[in-house]
Specification:
- The protein has a single domain, classed as L-arginine/glycine Amidinotransferase, Chain A (5-stranded Propeller), CATH 3.75.10.10.
- It contains six helices and 15 strands.
- A three-stranded mixed sheet has the order 2-1-15, with helices on one face. Strands 3-4-5 form a three-stranded mixed sheet, with helices on one face.
- Strand 3 and strand 4 form a beta hairpin.
- It is globular, with a radius of gyration of 17 Å.
- The structure holds citrulline.
- Citrulline binds next to loops.
Amino acid sequence: MSDRSFRFTHAICRLPGNSIVRGLRAVDTGAPDLALMRAHHADYVAALRETGADVTVLDPLEAYPDAVFVEDTALCLPQGAVVMRPGAPSRLGEAAEMAPHLERLYGSVARIAGPGTIEGGDILTTETEILVGRSARTDAAGIAELADIVAGWGWRLREVQTPPGVLHFKTDCSLLDAETILSTRRLSATGCFAGYRVIDVAEGEEAAANTIRFNDLVLMPAGFPRTRDRLVAGGYRVREIGNSECAKLDGGMSCLSLRFSLPAAA
Ligand code: CIR
């Protein structure tokens, strides 16, 4: 079984800034506790580093309250990086802020020029294809532009649907290995993962679906014991990371990093 979809040499994260208290959220459940969020973030970065990866931690960007959620700014593939065009107007500038960091590592990057929009949270890269969920943030034009770019790198892109009312496609699913996906029942029931092995999160633990497989670890949000037990029973090495504060802003494990291995020639 190949492992290129979860074997990574690099990650990029960004420290949360004070402005994160003004971050976007679907439902206001109160301001995040900044000290606790920073502690959770430090645990997250330490877990990525524990796998041997080179993790860059960028300074906070106070002008962009949601900038800690770096995943939405780019798609990083073994062949190259694509700078996204976020659908949330307040987040558009974050992608431009990320571009130079990726250029430094990759040499050059591709860009979604628009007018379409697309956010990294709607993109699930598996061993064989790139699934992109249409959502309130990611539209048909943004997906079509990405499809053209990645086709040049030999990737097949398949458009799917982010469940209504769910922020991003990956809010509800994550890749566990080359053939296995962790998903909410509401998403797996649509049939979009036909051909994959699916582990559903436990009922009532839908917020556990956003995990990341990063090298030998599965990072999952703390507080979902029945889903954790399913993953452990499946043979995965699970690390629970506190996510109570990011969850107030609809963020989770995948949102906090860009994960990639550089092209051999870069
Ligand atoms: C937003 O609404 O854009 C942020 N508050 C949360 C972004 C989460 N990112 C992700 O799922 N990839």
